[in-house]
Amino acid sequence: MHRRLRSTLLVTASLILAGCAGGPAEPVGRLAHADRTELLARLQLGQKVLDCREPCVGSWRRVQLEAAQLDAAEKWGELAVLVMRTGYPDDLTFYYLGKAAAGRGTYAAAAGYYRESIRLADTSGSCSKLSHLCAGLTFPQAAVRRLKVTERLLVHPKKSTRRPVGALRPASEPGNPQNNQAANPTSNATAPEASVTPPTPGSDTSAFVDYIEPPTASH
Fold it and tell me: Which of 77, 137, 191, 201 is 20 to 30 Å from the Cα of 129, by its Cα?
């Protein structure tokens, strides 16, 4: 009798917990119902709008997987909106805002968010201490690396780390077709000179092998 009663209580408790964990996430931050346009404007200005800690930690735990997926898919606008509506502040959420801002080309705002992420690392409000969700990242190192890249982009926007596809090699570089012409005087072919222009935000960057992170695509 007692065993059956205890089993019934355990099953009931499990169902209650499952119901609580499986319901839809309800953001409770002060910007939970803010318009997307307003939130992206705040992102561009670098406003530090994450200020709902303990009351919002549960909401953040329930959307953190979605945030990681948006980050991996480089859906910067959606990532920023999700994080800002949740309102939870820690080193990971400010890091996500930094990546979202950088991905949308607002590097000054991104730098501010990365600095806030670094400031919160190793405090009682860090992802390792409170939410226990750090998306497999180590802080502050992850934010420090991104900040250094962003600061370089502020000085030299969209500076390529590799030669764009189709760009001519220097005449002295081995493998340059022009060197082959010099070695073969019977060939009169002249390679057309390539014109390389760094991509602008929103433009097609498929012709470029690699650019310094963060990406230039806007979402």
Answer: 77
Burial of 144 (0-12, 13-18, 19+ CB in 10 A): middle
Mean pLDDT, consecutive 10-residue stretches, the chain (219 aa), reads 44 37 57 95 95 93 96 98 96 98 97 97 90 92 97 78 44 48 46 43 38 46
- In terms of C-beta distances under 8 Å and separation of at least 24 residues, what long-range contacts does 198-207 make, across chains too? 198/158, 198/159, 198/160, 199/158, 201/104, 201/105, 207/164, 207/165, 207/166
Domain boundaries of the chain, sorted by first residue: 26-155
Read off the pTM. Answer: 0.62
- As a whole number of angstroms, the distance between CA 61 and CA 124 comes to 17
207 contact partners, CB below 8 Å, separation of at least 6: 164, 165, 166
- The length of the chain in residues reads 219
Q: Are 211 and 163 in contact (CB under 8 A)?
A: no
Residue 128 Cα to chain centre, angstroms = 19
